[in-house]
Amino acid sequence: MVPVYERVALIGLGLIASSMAHAMRRDGLAGEIVGYAKSAETRKIAREMGLCDVITDSAAEAVQDADLVVLCVPVGAMGTVAREIGPVLKPGATVSDVGSVKRNVIEAVGPHIPDGVHFIPAHPLAGTEHSGPRSGFAELFDDRYTIIVPVPGSDAEAVSRLTALWKGMGALVEEMDPEHHDLVLAVTSHTPHLIAYTMVGVADDLRRVTDSEVIKYSAAGFRDFTRIAASDPVMWRDVFLSNKEATLEILGRFTEELFALQRAIRQEDGDHLHDYFTRTRAIRRGIIEAGQDTDAPDFGRVKARQG
Amino acid sequence: MVPVYERVALIGLGLIASSMAHAMRRDGLAGEIVGYAKSAETRKIAREMGLCDVITDSAAEAVQDADLVVLCVPVGAMGTVAREIGPVLKPGATVSDVGSVKRNVIEAVGPHIPDGVHFIPAHPLAGTEHSGPRSGFAELFDDRYTIIVPVPGSDAEAVSRLTALWKGMGALVEEMDPEHHDLVLAVTSHTPHLIAYTMVGVADDLRRVTDSEVIKYSAAGFRDFTRIAASDPVMWRDVFLSNKEATLEILGRFTEELFALQRAIRQEDGDHLHDYFTRTRAIRRGIIEAGQDTDAPDFGRVKARQG
């Protein structure tokens, strides 16, 4: 198979970058993969693992002669990295990223991209609660969406090449503008994460219910919140700070609805509760039908425990 | 194997009762299983499936000569069923239930239990988002906790026999008093469910993000909420109405914490967010170590899809 890019540089070697390395190798999508991480410990692990063909000791070194550079660092670090690599990018190269927020990344990275280099932001909607170079696996993007967010003037050929890479890694690809992306993600990801973090924090804080009780009895519902509340703290801090407006808007809506349900409980308005709970079932059915979750009892947890 | 109970009556034939029927049969725990459901359609399905040895057309008929009667109906219906069966219960029999709330059930059921019959409330902490007689499976209770909530005067031998049944069905068994049970469940189950319902409702309500977008991009976090927000609406309406005080208390704590995080976002207080998110990770690790979830990437969803 002819590689989609001859030389790919991954800046940051966490869950997404390490999964990309595995997925690109699985399907021969890159001629050579070069990696860099800020932490010496991460670089050491990545070298030991043979995660990439080369691990460099600076971002500038990693991107030299790269046909595709993918910024896989927390959203708050994107601008700093872009400033460092901007001057040494190869003319005609593509710079992309995997950040969970797009408007803010475009503002931080865009000014550092020289003429003749294509800047095409992207966001794979896939993840686990694990982080670091050992957490990646080739199947992470299979049947999950990657949203490509072209900026004004994005070269159509460069966009279709990046699309081919993501499809090659198993992803379904869609295009969106940055504002809409940030709103959709505030609803489907950022606000749910904040709420999950809050609920886990409340449980941890209570004096009358012990942590060990919360843990033992978590299968009753709480468990489903803890997975997303275990995600990387730096990444999520940056997401909330950089998608502030949309997150606060959706949080406002959430609080409004929560207060309405709280009042229904206080006033013992069973009909209101029943109607609300009936409506939300339909959404779940849609997700199963769209192939974005398994319908196996308990998410296939039973199977996984036996395996 | 000698059955733990000669004749077991299941009143209500939803997820829990049908899973109990499968689990009791798997290990020969009951000599005979009799079932009753209020809905004629449910009784018809249960008969077609051969779910129980006998399906009766009334609750009173089902409990005749039963050594164990398990009330598997929504919490709000427990009192009505207990009033109906009270007069025909066999002396020396045990009546138990599987309701998610205990104080309220004890108040509703207790007065209808005649002298000489043992009333031992219980609550298996296990479930899926599915309901009805076809949703059950024998492994539902494996390695999950069932909480037994003895009432004053509960006979020790009757309690240990019920414990043996639940252990036989694969469960880990703990005892708790009703007030503590209701508070622990408000934290680990009831409030998380209400929050999940709210978040799914908000997503469904937005005009600027379509339902199809919410569904397509749900793997980014939202999906984990939809499973628990797809649970049986009648069951959950009754849970919130009957565990009102504890749920409202935990909701109050939740709102307080959420507002603090919301303010941190508005004020761009990254340290506050980072510290909070770091603390919640430890809880997740505890759940994995306690064997109450799988550590497989994506909950083993990848595997389940392939299977």
Helices and strands in order:
The structure is a homodimer of 307-residue chains.
Chain A: E1 5-11, H1 15-26, E2 30-36, H2 40-49, E3 54-55, H3 59-63, E4 68-71, H4 78-85, E5 94-97, H5 103-109, E6 118-119, E7 122-124, E8 145-148, H6 156-168, E9 172-175, H7 178-205, H8 211-216, H9 222-228, H10 233-242, H11 244-266, H12 270-289, H13 301-306
Parallel strand pairs in A: 1-2, 1-4, 2-3, 4-5, 5-6, 8-9
Antiparallel strand pairs in A: 7-8
Helix pairs in contact in A: 4-5, 7-9, 7-11
Word description of this protein:
- Two copies of one chain form a homodimer.
- Chain A is 50% helix and 12% strand.
- With 307 residues, chain A is α/β, with parallel strands linked by helices.
- Chain A folds into two domains: 172 residues, Rossmann fold, CATH 3.40.50; 89 residues, 6-phosphogluconate dehydrogenase C-terminal fold.
- In chain A, the strands form two sheets. A six-stranded parallel sheet of chain A has the order 3-2-1-4-5-6, with helices on both faces. In chain A, strands 7-8-9 form a three-stranded mixed sheet, with helices on one face.
- The longest helix of chain A has 28 residues.
- The two termini of chain A are 33 Å apart.
- The C terminus of chain A is likely disordered.
- At the A-B interface, helix 7, helix 8, helix 9, helix 10 and helix 11 of A face helix 7, helix 8, helix 9, helix 10 and helix 11 of B.
Q: What is the CATH topology of the largest domain in chain A?
A: Rossmann fold
How much strand content do the residues of chain A show? 5-15%
Largest sheet of chain A, order of strands side by side? 3-2-1-4-5-6
Largest two-chain interface: A-B, 114 and 114 residues
Number of helices of chain A: 13
Spell out the CATH superfamily of the largest domain in chain A. NAD(P)-binding Rossmann-like Domain
Helix-strand pattern of chain A: EHEHEHEHEHEEEHEHHHHHHH
Please report the first level of CATH classification, the CATH class of the largest domain in chain A: Alpha Beta
* Overall form of chain A: globular
How many strands of chain A?
A: 9
List low-pLDDT spans of chain A. Answer: 299-307
Tell me the helix content of chain A: 40-55%
- The oligomeric state of the chains shown is homodimer
How many distinct domains of chain A?
A: 2
Distance between the termini of chain A: 33 Å
Radius of gyration of chain A: 21 Å
**Please, what is the average pLDDT of chain A?**
90
Structural class by sheet pairing and helices of chain A? alpha/beta
What is the architecture of the largest domain in chain A at the second tier of CATH?
3-Layer(aba) Sandwich
